[in-house]
Design brief:
With 302 residues, the protein is an alpha+beta fold. It has a single domain, classed as Lipocalin. 23% of the residues lie in helices and 43% in strands. The protein is built from five helices and 14 strands. An eleven-stranded antiparallel sheet has the order 8-7-4-3-2-1-13-12-11-10-9. The protein is globular and about 70 Å long.
């Protein structure tokens, strides 16, 4: 058996290190390329039924203008905040804080959705997440939604990431349906020459305690982000400049909660209102009210 010389071992180490660095640089470039101003189309359609007499729901279509703001850019973490741009009754721009995606390199700590607004804490080994990026997706009020880990793929001129995660019902069905409990999302985010695509192949599942999951239907989702000139999203950029410190405080409060590393169970509403309505009503200066409001929505552990 031929033994490696010290020089050969060093050369091998350098080659591996360079390869890892190149992969990571491509990963970071792909993630950050999702920032900017986009015309977005959202389309979802149920494809297969798995229960007798299941009635297919109508396809869902929507579109809008969206700004994706780079909020944090550190060595192992990239935070992207989505802002929807609409118009109020006078025709003036109206900004809605939309979903947020955090990308964390070789993350080991996860909140996995179970059912009934409950997320359980899990921890993976360093080996299980080596070279991978976790995408953590949050609601408009920065409460948890879903998260998963996978390796970015760069091959044949394509750049994509895909993983599977359980999540609550999507916003488009959250208040309209009660015939299933969770959505098993198969998410693919792929960078294109015109922007990027969020493609989904989802299972709609009934989950009951101590029983096997029941699949009732599958759906296809396609969110297409087409890049436009950043000037079209100037209103969102201005809004974020005025409100970013408030939402930084909201993220910090949630971070303290997540750092408890224990099961998290939330109320859907308090006094018949969801969390986002309480937070959206506050002025940017009212950061001292954030903690008390969020605390009302956290169920006490038994």
């Amino acid at each position: 058996m031929n033994a490696f010389t010290p020089v050969a071992l060093f050369a091998l180490f350098v080659t591996i290190a360079n390869s890892v660095a190149a992969q990571n640089a491509q990963d970071v470039k792909s993630i950050k390329s999702m920032c900017g101003c986009y015309e977005v189309s959202f389309e979802f359609g149920e494809t297969f039924a798995y229960q007798p007499n299941y009635k297919f729901y109508d396809n869902y279509k929507s579109a809008g203008l969206e700004w994706v703001q780079l909020v944090e850019d550190s060595k192992d973490k990239i935070v992207l905040q989505h802002l929807l741009i609409g118009k109020d009754s006078t025709g003036a721009p109206f900004i809605t804080k939309h979903w947020r995606q955090d990308w964390i390199y070789q993350n080991r700590f996860f909140y996995q959705y179970q059912q009934d607004q409950t997320w359980t804490y899990h921890q993976l080994s360093p080996k299980q997440v080596k070279g991978q990026w976790t995408q953590k997706v949050f609601q408009v009020d920065d409460s948890p939604r879903y998260e998963a880990t996978a390796t970015w793929v760069h091959i044949d001129g394509r750049h994509y990431w895909e993983a599977t995660a359980d999540s609550p019902l999507p916003r488009r069905e959250f208040t309209k349906r009660s015939d299933y409990d969770l959505l098993k999302r198969r998410n693919r985010q792929e960078i294109t020459d015109y922007g990027w695509i969020h493609e989904q192949d989802n299972d709609k599942i009934v989950r009951r305690s101590n029983q096997p999951d029941t699949l009732i239907a599958r759906e296809k989702g396609l969110d297409i982000y087409r890049r436009v000139d950043d000037s079209r999203c100037q209103a969102a950029q201005d809004w974020w400049a005025k409100n970013q410190l408030f939402w930084k405080a909201v993220r910090a409060e949630w971070a303290q909660i997540y750092n408890r590393q224990q099961t998290l169970q939330l109320h859907k509403t308090v006094d018949n209102q969801p969390l986002f309505m309480y937070l959206f009503r506050l002025n940017p200066e009212q950061t001292n009210e954030i903690a008390a409001i969020i605390a009302k929505f956290i169920k006490k552990q038994p």
